[in-house]
Amino acid sequence: MTDLDPISPVDAVAMYHDAMRDEHAESTRKSAKHRLRAFIQFCDEEEIENLNELSGRDLYKYRTWRREGQGDGRDPIKLVTLKGQLATLRRFLRFASNIDAVPPELYEQVTLPVMKNGEDVSDTTLKPARAIDILDYLENAQPASRDHLIVLLLWETGARTGAIRGLDLGDLDLDGSHPRLSGPAVHFVHRPDTGTPLKNQEKGTRWNRISEKAAHFIADYIEYHRPDVTDEYGRDPLITTQYGRPSGNTFRTTLYRVTRPCWRGAECPHDRDIDDCEATHLDKASRCPSARSPHDVRSGRVTYYRREDVPRRVVKDRLNASEDILDRHYDRRSDREQAEQRSNHLPDL
């Protein structure tokens, strides 16, 4: 302990957040900040004012404290959530050892829960048939609206929310004039200095083809529905609110809202009384069991590609994710579906 420099948990976490700016996307930094907020609260409750004093016994107590839902006033958390919390703490403690705040080996005493097969993978998705139904409804009821464009771009490109949010008017090639492309496309660009980083940073910069129909609706949105505003950096976002570039939460709430069956007049599959259902309120749309997130649109698109036997390399490049990530977190084909598709490529079956 004599070789360590005294530092408070708050100051050490602040230094960690600052160091992350050099290598991590804003979304990753925000996630780490949220997770370590509970650790700071724990240290405060345990009266750990100097991080040098943190021990393996404290780390075990923190694990139990978080497992029981302490730190955010909620019920006991899921194992996969606990694993994410502890993995973030482990990375923080490795950084803390580099600045002489804790012993070099302390991070090794943060053991991560062992997940059973598939336990750390979400089982929700927006099934391709539902995605198409929602798009058909939007195309007829709200053509070229912001809601329509958000769902359309998420579905056609399979891109992450951050990539769609970061599109500017100058990133569009709606008439297919790009010399190396054979049709309309959008250009996803990593711009961390002006608020729109990509998940995989420069490696995420890419052109994605879109359909002629999508290009038509984008053009109509720009001409008839897009508020003519710039963002705080003077850029011209494709998708806007009256105040500028929308937040990531705008995309999530849009998906929660439009994926509720009752929103488009379909029968409720959950036997709920529409007049009494809390999920009919816009601020509680996520509480509908049928509501889906942008991540679920992405997994639905991967499933669609795989069912259509689109080559894995093509899907990997288009969605800017490794094959392992696509297989583990996005492909929602059943085991039977995968077996049937493999048999199509094998002789004498």
From TrEMBL:
The keyword DNA-binding applies. GO terms for biological process: DNA integration; DNA recombination. Residues 121-343 form the Tyr recombinase domain. GO terms for molecular function: DNA binding. Gene3D superfamilies: 1.10.150.130, Intergrase catalytic core (1.10.443.10). Transmembrane segments: none annotated. Residues 7-97 form the Core-binding (CB) domain. InterPro entries: CB, DNA_brk_join_enz, Integrase-like_cat_sf, Integrase_catalytic, Integrase_recombinase_N, Integrase_SAM-like_N, Tyrosine_recombinase_XerCD. Keywords: DNA integration, DNA recombination, DNA-binding. Residues 330-349 are annotated as: Disordered. Pfam families: Phage_int_SAM_1. This is Site-specific integrase. The lineage of its organism: Archaea, Methanobacteriati, Methanobacteriota, Stenosarchaea group, Halobacteria.
